[in-house]
Amino acid sequence: MFSPTLLSFVLASLITPSLTATLNQPSQIKALTYDYIIVGGGTAGLVLANRLTEDPTVTVLVLEAGVSDQGLTNLQVPFLGPTLTPNTIVDWNYTVTPQPGMNGRSFAYPRGRVLGGSSSVNYLFHQFGTDEDWNRLASISGDIGWNWTNMKKYVQKHEKFVPPIDGHNTAGQFIPSLHGFNGEVSVSLPGNNQTIDPRVLATTKQLAEFPFNQDTSGGDHSLLGIGFLQSSAGGGVRSSSSTSYLANASNRPGLTVVVNAPVTKLLSTGNGKAKGTVAFRSVEFRASPATPAGAGTLTATARKEVILSAGTVGSAQILQLSGIGDPARLKSVNVNSLVANSDVGENLSDHTLLPNLFSVQGNLSFDGVLRSADLSQAAFEQWAQNKTGMFANNIVNNYGFARLPSNSPLLKPTDPAAGPKSPHFEMITSNVYFNPGIPMPPTGSFMTIVTVLSCPTSRGSIRIKSNNPTDAPQINPNYLSTAFDIGTMIESVKAIKRFIAAPAWKDYVIGPFGDAFAAATSDASIESYVRGLTTTIFHPVGTASMSSKAAKNGVVNPDLTVKGTEGLRVVDASVFPFVPSTHTQGPVYLLAERAADIIKQANQ
Ligand SMILES: Cc1cc2nc3c(=O)[nH]c(=O)nc-3n(C[C@H](O)[C@H](O)[C@H](O)COP(=O)(O)OP(=O)(O)OC[C@H]3O[C@@H](n4cnc5c(N)ncnc54)[C@H](O)[C@@H]3O)c2cc1C
Ligand SMILES: *[C@@H]1O[C@H](CO)[C@@H](O)[C@H](O)[C@H]1NC(C)=O
Ligand SMILES: *[C@@H]1O[C@H](CO)[C@@H](O)[C@H](O)[C@H]1NC(C)=O
Ligand SMILES: *[C@@H]1O[C@H](CO)[C@@H](O)[C@H](O)[C@H]1NC(C)=O
Ligand SMILES: *[C@@H]1O[C@H](CO)[C@@H](O)[C@H](O)[C@H]1NC(C)=O
Ligand SMILES: *[C@@H]1O[C@H](CO)[C@@H](O)[C@H](O)[C@H]1NC(C)=O
Ligand SMILES: *[C@@H]1O[C@H](CO)[C@@H](O)[C@H](O)[C@H]1NC(C)=O
Ligand SMILES: CC(=O)N[C@H]1CO[C@H](CO)[C@@H](O)[C@@H]1O
User: Fold this and answer.
1) What is the pTM of this model?
2) Taking residues 359-387, what's their average pLDDT?
3) Does the pLDDT at position 16 exceed 50?
4) How many angstroms from the chain centroid is the CA of residue 163?
5) Is residue 88's pLDDT more than 90?
6) What is the mean pLDDT of residues 330-358?
7) Which of 158, 351, 424, 583 is catalytic?
8) What residues form the annotated binding site?
9) Using CA atoms in the order 327, 330, 336, 338, what is the torsion angle rounded to 10 degrees?
């Protein structure tokens, strides 16, 4: 979507501090028995790696399929987030099955395949979910510990709010009492103004429908309205779970992290103590294909627990490869069923992304810089030398959330939002042509207002296609398959048309870009525009859904143990039964912080 010139010059890597504890090849591993084995060194996995090794007597092995993030400069540059995937060395390169709700289109479905997981390749938007999202999780799981009253204390452990790169006065741009200042992951407000910022802010004064929101992090504070983006970056550099939680624990002798170590399956280690349960304390993994010398598989065993943190795709895939899933489906791919659970891999839910493009006046959007190798090089140099300017900042400065009108027929018979304060859709303003998968035109200046469905009701699935762990699973999110989902996306397009009609845009916006958007004037034509262009904003959850201990459905219990098993938990985005109203990395971080406390408590 951005100019290819961007990718060439950043190959000249800068040296970053090395993580002494990281082994690059499974063959370097010295021991095969640990207290805990964490499958996946991603967002949640590295939170656990840090917290569990706070006790120096505890040993932890992290097995990460992907590469190390060391020396991959692009990952550190906030503005380059959108260039890191899809189809790169740090991506799993998945695609979705042809989507009936999207005119049969299939498209990229990125997932980080690198230390830090998706937190190393994401777009750095940072929020916590709404209090209603967490209270709904508490209510579904029957565990009051998931409610926001309890969860908000983890904000302090997790977040380290730091000044913006331009050092401007941030009074009125966030609410300090909602944030942590001594945690692990750096978070900051925008530090490089865009041409459109004053117009976005003026719109919040001109249109009552889009009020200013002083803090966009969620939690106790309403998400509704437009405010300043908070990014997981500090000092102009991305803060991932690897550069924060792992970097801070990497010298602990109890921690071993191995990259290029894809886990192929979990191995049953006998019957569990509770009747009818199966213990899974061994993990089979292999050297990556890139290192033929280490080919073959190894098996490591946990004294206490195996924790799956391989993400919404990876954890669902590994559970099925290990015989935990729907018996008939497992049989059809020649996997021996050990624990019957037909919800494994089902209930996939995700936020959709629609890039609404506008042609704009002048040449002060970022498009001209991105088309010019010289201007891009200069912006990169400024980042490399001073960690300031365009590349040190996110691609977005302002965004916000909205609800459908309370009398909308879409809310009958039930409102799928987590509660009356939680949004139905999101709007993201950016000073550039942003259109995943579709290259920018050679001329023109653009603004993009992305709209996102915040409380989708469509449900899909992730199912293995064979018993070969290197085969990508079948990923079918089943996007826009309900009347609520398509209807709300249609309303989001109407909302941004009202937004752009504010006086603030009069001398700036020329008009919609692209024939389909220009023609989208009735509900029917907006529907065909939405179905023709929408993709994903990369927030899949639900394939190992949490439910109450007594529930007949669901994959994990409220303490994240896998139903019907012993010695096995899942800790990652897959356990959310509903996708939080916000971008999902913050909710995953908080979930993992509490999971670490639960695991420590259970193994005292
Ligand atoms: C392109 C993109 C942009 C995004 N933008 C944002 C954003 O701006 N803001 C936001 O809040 N969220 C964003 N997200 C979503 C957010 O990053 C994820 O919800 C979150 O990071 C998921 O955390 P996780 O721990 O569940 O999985 P991950 O962080 O993906 O970690 C899973 C890890 O497990 C590893 N793994 C998988 N299978 C195996 C295996 N078989 N063996 C060993 N290791 C394995 C993976 O390589 C990975 O490292 C984005 C995601 C993507 C992909
Ligand atoms: C993804 O595609 C890139 C580019 O083709 C490639 O280098 C990488 O190895 C692929 N990753 C996987 C997991 O296949
Ligand atoms: C949330 O849980 C705490 C205990 O962890 C309890 O005191 C509080 O009342 C609960 N709040 C809600 C809204 O359920
Ligand atoms: C992370 O490590 C640094 C350096 O050891 C230390 O100063 C800092 O307090 C640590 N941060 C946290 C939150 O533990
Ligand atoms: C950038 O915009 C913010 C918000 O409007 C403002 O506080 C800040 O002073 C601006 N910085 C510059 C250099 O204009
Ligand atoms: C924008 O236009 C001005 C005046 O024509 C020109 O000097 C400048 O280089 C242009 N900037 C870009 C980014 O194209
Ligand atoms: C970095 O900052 C210094 C001091 O402000 C300035 O002189 C220099 O030009 C900057 N470098 C780049 C590449 O912008
Ligand atoms: C845990 C969970 O939410 N399971 C549900 C998944 O979806 C199916 C079909 O909608 C339900 O029957 C399950 O209860």
Assistant:
1) 0.96
2) 96
3) no
4) 24
5) yes
6) 98
7) 583
8) 114, 263
9) -50
Phi and psi at residue 516, to the nearest 5°: -65, -40
Per-residue model confidence as pLDDT tens digits over 259-274 = 999 999 999 999 999 9
Q: Is the beta carbon of 172 within 6 A of some atom in ligand 5? A: no
- CA 243 to CA 78: how far, in whole Å? 14
Ligand 6 center to residue 375 CA distance, Å? 11
Angle at 559 between CA 554 and CA 561, to 5 degrees: 60
Q: Which two tokens stand for residue 604?
A: 């005292």
β-pairing, 352-360 vs 509-512, is antiparallel
With the most atoms of ligand 4 within 8 angstroms of its CB, the residue from 248, 252, 589, 593 to mutate is: 248
Q: Is 583 a catalytic residue?
A: yes
Which comes out higher in pLDDT, residue 242 or 26?
A: 242
Q: Closest Cα to atom 3, ligand 6: which residue? A: 363
Q: Is the CB of 220 under 6 A from ligand 5?
A: no
> Are 127 and 232 spatial neighbours (Cβ–Cβ below 8 Å)?
no
- Quickly state the pLDDT bin for 360 (edges 50, 70, 90): very high
Q: Is 333 left (phi over 0), alpha (psi -120 to 50) or beta?
A: alpha
**Taking Cα atoms as reference points, which of 88, 85, 87, 146 lies closest to residue 119?**
85
The whole-angstrom separation of Cα 341 and Cα 151 is: 29
Q: What's the pLDDT tens digit per position in 457-512?
A: 999 999 999 999 999 999 999 999 999 999 999 999 999 999 999 999 999 999 99
**Atom 8 in ligand 4: residue holding the nearest Cα:** 248
Mean pLDDT for all residues in the chain: 94
Query: Does the Cβ of 185 fall within 6 Å of ligand 6?
Result: no
3-state secondary structure of 400: strand
User: Closest-lying ligand to the alpha carbon of 574?
Assistant: 1
Q: Per the omega criterion (within 30 degrees of 0), is the bond before 82 cis?
A: no
Neighbour count for residue 153 (Cβ, 10 Å)? 14
325-341 average pLDDT score: 98
Hey, what are 192's tokens?
């490089």
Token pair of 565, please?
């098993």
Spell out the residues 6+ positions from residue 306 whose beta carbon is closer than 8 angstroms to its own. Answer: 36, 37, 39, 266, 280, 281, 282, 283, 567, 568, 569
Asked if pLDDT for residue 249 goes beyond 80, the answer is yes
What is the structure's pLDDT at 71?
Answer: 93
Tokens of residue 330, six digits: 């497992």
For residues 436-455, give the mean pLDDT. 94
For residue 155, the CA-to-ligand 4 centroid distance in Å is 16
Distance (Å, rounded) from C-alpha 498 to C-alpha 54? 52
Cα 398 to ligand 6 centre (Å): 25
Residue with tokens 């001594």: 182
How far is the C-alpha of 7 from the C-alpha of 465, rounded, in Å?
A: 34
Is residue 152 within 8 Å of residue 125, measured between CB atoms? no
Decide whether any atom of ligand 7 lies within 6 Å of the 382 Cβ. yes
**369 CB less than 6 Å from ligand 6?**
yes
Q: What local confidence, expressed as pLDDT, does residue 436 receive? A: 85
Rounded to whole angstroms, the Cα distance separating 13 from 11 reads: 6
Residue type, 490: I
User: If you take atom 9 of ligand 3, which residue's CA is the nearest one?
Assistant: 149
d(CA 315, CA 321): 10
Distance from C-alpha of 132 to C-alpha of 153, rounded to nearest angstrom: 16
Q: In ligand 8, which atom is closest to the CA atom of 554?
A: 1
Structure tokens at 177: 């009492």
